[in-house]
Amino acid sequence: MANTKEILSKAKQSWAFQWLKEPKHFFIAGKSTPSKSTQKWKVINPSTQELLCEVPVADKNDVDAAVASAFQAFQSGVWSESARRFRREALQRIGAIIRDHAEELATLESLSNGKLFSEAYIDDLPESADVFDYYAGWIDKFYGETVPVDPGFINYTRKEPVGVCALIVPWNFPLLLACWKIAPALAMGNTVIVKPSEYTPLSVLRLAELIREKAQLPDGVFNVVVGDAETGRLITEHPQIQKVSFTGSTGVGKKVLAGAAQSNLKTVTLELGGKSPNILFSDLPDLEAAIERSCTAMFSHKGEKCSEPTRILIQDTIYDKVVAGLVERANQIRLGDAFQEGVDQGPQAHEAHYKKVLSYIELGQTEGARLVCGGVAESVNKDGKGFFVKPTIFADVLPHMRIAQEEIFGPVLVAIRFKTEEEAIQIANQTHYGLAAGLWTSDLSRGHRVAAKLDSGMVFVNRYGCYDFASPFGGFKQSGWGKEMAIHSLEAYTKTKSVWIKL
Ligand code: NAD
User: Fold this and answer.
1) Residues with CB under 6 A from ligand 1
2) CATH 3.40.605.10 is held by the domain 4-21+29-272
């Protein structure tokens, strides 16, 4: 989806550029709250490497203040015991605020993450708003049950909020992934502390201000602190937090789990990394459509999507044709600034990540894979600044190679050849990840058979990458623990109490 002039004009007129000049504070107890720490983080525009602004990094005092605010608000019952209509309308107001401020929020997203403005504005922002309406609608439709126990008793269950929930999110969809968590957590009566990634905290900080001005939430229900790994650790280990919902890398997810276990055994939901297979059988219904979609799913959002199809498994009889088609399309992708007209792919989100992606490209060559496309950094700006990596494809990749096993999280696709259905399934399942998988076939029986055998939390048949609030999202194996979306998020933000009455 390329940036167009019409869409870009919305970014230029947005309030975001003005807002960047204002000092940045946390959002605690319903107020814009200056940090107690003096540590600052520089937020950089990855398209230009220019400084956008500085944000404070929360220390123990800041985290304690945010937790105290959320805890007090929860205990008071002002939110957790409020009327359903009160919470429903508040969530709907947040959705409306996001819609009303879509231009500036999308601008902040693109400035700090480098994703195309069109991707932020058309993909991320509407979904960030809509998820509040979706969960507002659930508030009076999610409840316990009457249990058919033996005569002499009545037994029923209650769905109760868990308490203070910490929501820790990464930099690839900074606002959207935060909203995926905020909406169901608030809907169920919890209070929240959001910690966006230090690389991309701007959209969530701005949302906090807008919520303060317009959402009429009780103080302390919604809190935001910005910080790095140490801030995340302090949150994860905090004894007054009852739940951590974490989206990020598998390595950090394990630390979150350990911290939760060692502190107060808070409950944890983990949405982690992926190395998702996409299997093209030679009997697929439309070769060109499969190549086109595989390419779009892989390279949109600059390959920084957890569920993207990074391993394409191609049956040997169509292998050369598919690789040629992928290369042709990938070579047409135009790189450039997130706000430049006619651009299809922005820069990688930050310098360390950019270097990691390039190091994997080097590794692929060392491992003996055949580089058929890209493979280099691209100089987009005259001064050579910006973290741009050309869409890269390796062919003749062997399943055991590190580039086929480890998450690169950039525009690097590996193509693996297979002969039989059994071999495809075996290769597809041969990683410690299990987030998503795709397969393409005209054979209905094969579609169902292979879908059942793939050890992945989501399987897409004949169209890679389908998502809906009504359908569970999340991975198996080391890609995650628990599900998000639909009723699953409501389960994740409630605890079930069993009540017995003797008659
Ligand atoms: P990351 O794990 O480095 O960081 C994620 C968040 O955790 C950030 O806010 C970070 O500050 C915080 N953090 C870092 N160390 C911490 C610690 N010790 N304790 C607590 N918090 C800590 O991930 P990232 O580089 O920001 O994002 C990329 C990763 O996220 C990829 O692995 C990608 O697959 C994954 N991801 C997964 C999903 C999903 O739904 N499965 C969605 C998006 C991204």
Assistant:
1) 168-172, 177, 195, 197-198, 228-229, 232-233, 236, 247-249, 252, 255-256, 271-274, 306, 407, 409, 435, 475, 480
2) yes
Task: For residue 197, give the ligand 1 atom closest to its CA.
Answer: 9
Detail the DSSP E strand segments found in 255-391: 267-271, 277-280, 311-315, 370-373
Q: Alpha carbon of 318 to those of 182, 377, 443: distances in Å?
A: 45, 30, 16
**Which residue, among 70, 66, 55, 163, has the nearest Cα to 108 in the 3D structure?**
55
Please name the residue whose Cα sits nearest to atom 23 of ligand 1.
248
- pTM here is 0.97
Burial environment of residue 229 by CB neighbours within 10 A (0 to 12, 13 to 18, 19 or more): exposed
As to burial, measured by CB atoms within 10 angstroms (0-12 exposed, 13-18 middle, 19+ buried), residue 22 is exposed
| Closest ligand 1 atom to 249 CA | 32
Q: What pLDDT was estimated at residue 483?
A: 96
Nearest to 166 by CA among 195, 138, 142: 195
Least Cα distance to 306 among 162, 138, 455, 434 occurs for: 434
pLDDT tens readout for residues 84-99: 999 999 999 999 999 9
> Selecting from 3.40.50.20, 3.30.160.20, 3.10.50.40, 3.40.309.10, what CATH number does the domain 277-477 have?
3.40.309.10
The catalytic residues are: 271, 306
Atom 36 of ligand 1 has which residue's CA nearest to it? 248
Which helix or strand (DSSP H or E) is residue 176 part of? helix 174-187
pLDDT at 14: 79
SS3 279: strand
Strand partners, 54: 42
- Position 222 scores a pLDDT of 98
* Sites in the chain below the pLDDT cut of 50: none
pLDDT of residue 1: 63
Place of tokens 């605010």: 69
